[in-house]
Amino acid sequence: MLLPGPIDVLRSIGLGVSDGTLLVAAAASFRRLLIGYLIAVGLGISIGLILGRSSLLRETFGSLVLGFQTVPSVVWLPLALVWFGFGDLSIIVVVVLGTIWTVITNTESGVRTVSPLLIRAASTMGARGTKLFLNVILPASVPSIITGMRMAWSFAWRALLPGELIGSGAGLGQVLMIGRNLGDLSLVMAVAALIFAAGSILDQLVFRRVEDRVMEKWGLAQARRGAAG
Questions:
Q1: C-alpha atoms less than 13 angstroms from C-alpha of 20 in its C-beta half-sphere
Q2: How many angstroms separate the CA atoms of 25 and 198, rounded?
Q3: What does the DSSP 8-state code read for residue 207?
Q4: Which of 51, 49, 143, 34 is CA-nearest to residue 99?
Q5: Which phi and psi (to 5°) does residue 4 adopt?
Q6: I want to staple 12 with a disulfide (CB 3.0 to 4.6 A). Which of 152, 172, 186, 213 is the partner?
């Protein structure tokens, strides 16, 4: 009873798919997850680019970003429930607040660590201001931004499930609560297996491929393979 076997877990997955329970819950969770993730990525990249280019803002607000990054996403849930009530909006807010800081820090780090030689070479060829930023600094920051987006995806999952455990409506978090209340640990493990599979598949099919292409374009793939070897 405490640790269901693989057959019981597969049976729970099959039953949940056949009656639509897991499919409806997964669709609801993915919708909230994607909305919160896209908002966090859009805002995080924008704020990170600004912090990376402004030393004054970085010195004043950079430490706040690092501090907020250490706050567990579940801490934001009571505030979101008070502000927005039970529903999708509260869960999406928790996902955004639990994800955005990683995107900001990676983007800001990518902007700050652009090679000075690259900037100097572009400057000698007439690149200044916006042109320098759009054509040199921003493209050179893409590897770090992609890494931040990849990390943010896992943080988004970690923020989503606590919100769904308490929030209202359908979702994988609610299925976890049902499994706990019924003592059906095979259902709990089935949800965990689905989350693991979804995260692994998307990481391999999307983030890993995009990251490899970016690394190859910027000539970093060979260096990474050499370090791994």
A1: 2
A2: 13
A3: I
A4: 34
A5: -65, 145
A6: 186
The encoded tokens of residue 228 equal 């791994």
Query: What is the longest distance spanned by two Cα atoms in the chain?
Result: 70
- Per-residue pLDDT tens over the stretch 39-83: 999 999 988 888 887 777 777 787 788 788 888 878 888 888 888
Question: What single-letter DSSP state applies at residue 4?
Answer: -
Residue 87 CA to its chain's centroid (Å): 21
CA 196 to chain centre: 14
Query: What is residue 210's three-state secondary structure?
Result: helix
Secondary-structure breakdown of the chain: helix, strand, coil percentages, each rounded to the nearest 5 = 85, 0, 15
Locus of tokens 């004054």: 56
pTM greater than 0.85 (yes/no): no
Residues 6+ apart with CB under 8 A from 135: 122, 127
Amino acid at site 21? T
29, 171 Cβ separation under 8 angstroms: yes
Q: What distance in Å separates the CA atoms of residue 41 and residue 102, rounded to the nearest whole number? A: 9
One DSSP character per residue, 93-143 reads HHHHHHHHHHHHHHHHHHHHTS-HHHHHHHHHTT--HHHHIIIIIHHHHHH
* Mean of the per-residue pLDDT values of the chain: 79
Intra-chain end-to-end CA distance of the chain, in Å: 44
Residues ≥6 apart with Cβ < 8 Å to 99: 36, 37, 40, 41, 44, 73, 152, 155, 156, 159
For residue 148, which of 41, 54, 64 has the smallest C-alpha distance?
A: 41
Burial 118-133 (b: 16+ CB within 10 A, else e): ebeebeeeebeeeebb
